[in-house]
UniProtKB/TrEMBL annotation:
Taxonomic source organism: Halobacillus aidingensis
Protein name: Ser/Thr protein kinase RdoA involved in Cpx stress response, MazF antagonist
Residues spanning the signal sequence: none
Gene3D superfamilies: 3.90.1200.10
Residue ranges constituting the Aminoglycoside phosphotransferase domain according to the UniProt record: 29-256
Molecular functions per Gene Ontology: kinase activity
Top-level taxon of origin: Bacteria
SUPFAM superfamilies: Protein kinase-like (PK-like) (SSF56112)
InterPro entries according to UniProt: AGP_Transferase, Aminoglycoside_PTrfase, Kinase-like_dom_sf
Amino acid sequence: MSRRQSDVQWQRLCFHADLGKLVSSPETLTGGLLHRMYLVKTTKGNYAVKILNPEIMKRPEAMKNYMNSEKISNLVSNHIPALPANVINGRIVNETDNQFYMVFDWIKGRSLKHIEIRTTHSKKIGSILADIHKVNFEELNIEYGGINNGHFIEWHSYLEKGQQASAEWVTLLKRNIDKLYEWESKSKKAADVLSSEIVISHRDLDPKNVMWHQGSPVVIDWESAGYITPMQDLIETATYWSTDGRGNINKSRFLAFIEGYIKNSVELCADWERVLETGYLGKLGWLEYNLKRSLKMECSDEDEQKLGSVQVTETIMELQQYENSLPILRDWLSNEQDV
């Protein structure tokens, strides 16, 4: 598509959403692994526009999930610094030219890279997570469908498809396939044990989803929001904010996150063995999705396929690194609980 054609489409979107007239061509923003984000400058102001992945929008539950996630972000924005989507024409998710999109006010700031994160950042996000867990979401009447979806992933099926396609990740997947079944079994059993206590949370509160400006954070990208067990959410998020990006977990940042959470919540008391085992679940689900993208089973274009292939390799490595970190995390948490 030419730049002129693209600008015409953007002009129609801006007209449909009553954003004003374009003053320059939209700028592509980096960081999104599912959708495409753009900075759109108009006569009325600056906006962040999320063009939703068409493959995801084909899912029967997609629209309902987006509506629920934005209900959550709107309510929680009364308690923490959060950025909900704008309501356009009475809707949160809109469509023009057969393309679904969401509009957000533009905010100053940027997300932090792993090497930029300090203990002060980790502690602050730990406190924010505790605030999210304390919000009463009952008025939203969001249906609870269970933590564990029940079905097991057919990893061998993906391996066979990958071999047929000569996928670059085949050797790595084959070498770890027994581990995938083991990790999935452990995590699902642990989730069942812990499912008696649940909260609604962001569920993807990693550094890319927090914008910082002059030391103050704003939580963005609420599309994964939903039910989760609080201690699973705590450990997964603490790990996000304490990794160095190479699989190593910084003890000071990890414990600072826990400290921030405790200060704003209650004394921790958990079956850490089970909690840590649930940490595989999100990574396994992300791995399956990217296998589908890489194999063109759920993929909109070549760029997305390539991204899926890269994410398959990275996610398997993250799973390996997570398993290696479990004894260390277990020791830190046990000592923290004994204090």
